[in-house]
Amino acid sequence: MCQTVDGHPKKKLLRKQWDEKLFEFLKKRSQITKRPMVWSGDLNVAHTYHDSTNEDFFRNEWDRDSNRHASKESYFRETPPEDRGIPGFSDNERKRFEKLLEAGDLFDSWRHLNPITNETNVSPESNAFTWRGTPAVQNNFRARYEGMGQRLDYHLLSNSMSDHLVDCKILGHGTQRHGFLGSDHCPVILQLKL
Questions:
Q1: What whole-number distance in Å separates Cα of residue 137 and Cα of residue 161?
Q2: How confident is the model over 2-25, as pLDDT tens digits?
Q3: pTM higher than 0.85 for the full model?
Q4: Are the beta carbons of 154 and 108 closer than 8 angstroms?
Q5: Which strands, in side-by-side order, build the sheet including 106-108?
Q6: pLDDT at 109
Q7: What is the dihedral of CA 62, 116, 30, 152, to 10 degrees?
Q8: Which terminus of the chain has fewer CB atoms gathered within 10 Å of its CB, N or C?
Q9: pLDDT averaged over the chain?
């Protein structure tokens, strides 16, 4: 499981250190074994802008709840552009995730079966997102992330396993969170053939 970050600089540093240690592990692993790997879980990063229903919103969100910044303007003044946005959306996190895929010789099984094309325009109602913002508790309020979606949960496979991939399905869909089973994340099913 990846380190979770809440936007605090110390936690961002912890996430960066986690990614760097994982990168070293994956590099060493690839040198000592060619055994295939399946890595599954909530990796807390939206790999590309196609992995979000509201890319601009998430990338421009600021650390409003921590009281470290008096305003959005001070957040943008004090935060380097490559580290801005909610956790999992910064340019640096995405670059490090890409490096992890390369170091481990891994591919994203769901994206492999659902490639990005020039026509890719994913509906917020589709089953392309594994996390959804929860609805407000009171009917007359809207929760900050209500109905928004991100793809944060992955089944990553060694490239040598591409011929074994049968299917990868995200079971939840829609702004009403069908299939989310009481969590803000939904199940992702991976099917492989031997």
A1: 44
A2: 445 555 678 888 999 999 999 999
A3: yes
A4: yes
A5: 38-42, 153-158, 106-108
A6: 98
A7: 40
A8: C
A9: 88
DSSP string, the chain: -PPP--S-HHHHHHHHHHHHHHHHHHHHHHHH-----EEEEE-----SGGGBS-HHHHHH---TTSSS-SSHHHHHHHS-GGG-SSTT-SHHHHHHHHHHHHHHTEEEHHHHHS---TT----TTSS--SEEBPPPSSTT---TTBT-EE--EEEEEEGGGGGGEEEEEE--BTTTTBT-TTSSB--EEEEE--
* 73-82: average pLDDT: 87
Closest CA to 161 of 122, 106, 88: 106
List pLDDT tens digits, range 123-170. Answer: 888 899 999 988 766 666 667 788 889 999 999 999 999 999 999 999
The residues facing 188 across adjacent strands are 170
The residue length of the chain stands at 194
Phi, psi of 88 (to 5 degrees): 95, -5
What are the tens digits of pLDDT across the range 52-74?
A: 998 888 888 877 666 777 888 88
What is the residue type of 34?
K
